[in-house]
Queue: 2 jobs
Job 1
Amino acid sequence: MMKTIPRLLLVAAIALSAHAASAETLRVGKAGREAFSFVPLDIGVRSGIFTRHGLDVEISNFGGDARLQQAMAADGVDISLGSGPGLAFIVKGSPVKGIAAMAGPPLLFALVVRNDDSVKTVDDLKGRKIGVSTVGSVTSWIISEVSRQRGWGFDGITQVPIGENAARVAAVRSKALDGGIVDLASALNFVQRGEGRILLRFGDLVKDFHIHVIFATDKIIAERPQALRGFLAGWFETIGLMRRDKQKSVAIAADVMGTDTATAAGIYDELMPMFSDSGRFNPKALAVLRRSFVEMKTLSEEPDMSRLYTEAFLPKP
């Protein structure tokens, strides 16, 4: 019996090594490091889900959609977790396509301001400088939509592209900016440190929307379609795991976002409803995006949205 156990362990080790050797590497970029929206990628990796689908996922973090799209154009990543407004980059020549609608309404973001009463209400935002991640990002779209809904036009609030959440928070703290659009974890940490407050949440801003989309490069679409199918199968398996196992999901989320367990649990409760279980694109959400590209002057005319995405790699219902 004593000889059998080491032999079994050796066989298991050989099997694991063979599996690791056969795993296909996918380079996946996230538009933000701390955002809960992108935590499913870390959970899928740490839970071994992507490994079971024959994939070795390498994660990189970027400060917004523009930088993420640049990395894809330079063949620095194969797949990216970006924003719905990021679909406009394809019209401008980005060699990518949307392959899954990842999340719906913009529940993730909040607008934070200092506690010094320099900005007391939403009406005080007109003409103020508000930090966003990059031009053409979902944070850029959100502040433009706030301005439009207040009757100030899409440029009634001055946008300042400043990269990562931490950089936006630091700029608000130092008074370089009047406020910043940041993810909920960053906003809550800002409030807990006594440095400011949340002025706006955006769950009711618009109901039909794709806050996040999963993109793939044209190169990987053409050359490695099975890897894309495996990735999306692993992604939606991870979403299912997150819905079933809050405790495990929150533990990993707290570590990734750099926050405490209680805060991560609250964010989980608020944001899990935004995730899609199927990845299918919503025609009404696409119509909102199509109009916004022109209203925000991102594009000169409304594009044919059907050319910007594909559902060919989604798991079959």
Note: The CA atoms of residues 48 and 84 lie 28 Å apart.
Job 2
Amino acid sequence: MKVLFWIGLVVLVLGIVSLFVPIPRNEREGIKIGDVSIGVETRQTEKAPPIISAVLILVGAGMMIAGKRKP
């Protein structure tokens, strides 16, 4: 059951971190005509939706509680 507690702790921390740290995403667009290649690379950072963070926090807390209970 201790494994469940530690996995829950990791999920809980990931849920809290996802509220503050944006997720980077790179996109490449381009066109190639013959030997000439023209391209543009964009970089965007987005935060995870709050509902996903809330679910991760609740699941992590639930797993920690379940891992601490004695059978």
Note: The chain has two helices and two strands.
